[in-house]
Write a structure and sequence with these properties.
By secondary structure, this protein is an alpha+beta fold. Helices cover about 35% and strands about 25% of the residues. Strand 5 and strand 6 form a beta hairpin.
């Protein structure tokens, strides 16, 4: 007897359908892949959600947020200097950069779409990117395994390739700006 081999998409569609998940949850689970419906043995695309369309919007971002300066002053010595320096790099990316404290740390946005942040810990500062998983990182600075976000750990006593990190910030800004431009 010949065995019938299902395509991976069909097998996954069958599993998802049998679990009775809502279509929006399926799209989220597949992380931007096509979502399929199975009717009478026919597999047809019913919804396409791409990761490129999912932006993290922060409508309360402003041109200058004094709470960020207060946040910076609340950290000591080297950590404050590191966080302040890299957030200034983010601020200087363009005239459309806005900012706010989000989840307790300084966040930079293009208009209202978050692209990067800084956060200070006990012994290091994270310079993070909301779409970091999609950034080209030839220097291999990015850390993390999340679906979207990545970060670079900057320690006072360790070397970091400053030009490579500045390039990552600029790339994140340019990428987010491109996502916001209307399709032609």
């Amino acid at each position: 007897m010949a065995s019938h081999k299902q395509s991976p998409h069909r097998a996954r569609a069958l599993r998802l359908r049998s679990a009775s998940w809502r279509r929006s949850r399926i799209a989220e689970t597949l992380g931007g892949a096509d979502v399929f419906d199975v009717n009478a043995g026919v597999v047809a695309p019913i919804l396409i959600v791409t990761a490129m369309n999912q932006l993290f919007r922060l409508s309360t971002s402003v041109e200058w947020d004094p709470a960020i300066d207060t946040w910076m002053e609340g950290h000591s010595g080297d950590l404050e200097a590191i966080a302040r320096h890299w957030f200034e790099v983010m601020r200087k990316c363009g005239d459309d950069v806005r900012e706010l404290l989000h989840d307790g740390h300084p966040t930079a946005c293009v208009a209202d779409a978050a692209f990067a942040y800084v956060n200070a810990f006990t012994a290091h500062v994270n310079v993070g990117f909301f779409r970091g998983a999609e950034l080209v990182d030839p220097a291999g600075l990015l850390e993390g395994t999340g679906r979207y976000m990545r970060h670079v750990k900057v320690r006072p006593d360790s070397y970091v390739d400053a030009s490579a990190l500045a390039a990552l910030i600029d790339t994140a800004y340019t990428d987010m700006k491109g996502r916001l431009e209307p399709a032609v």
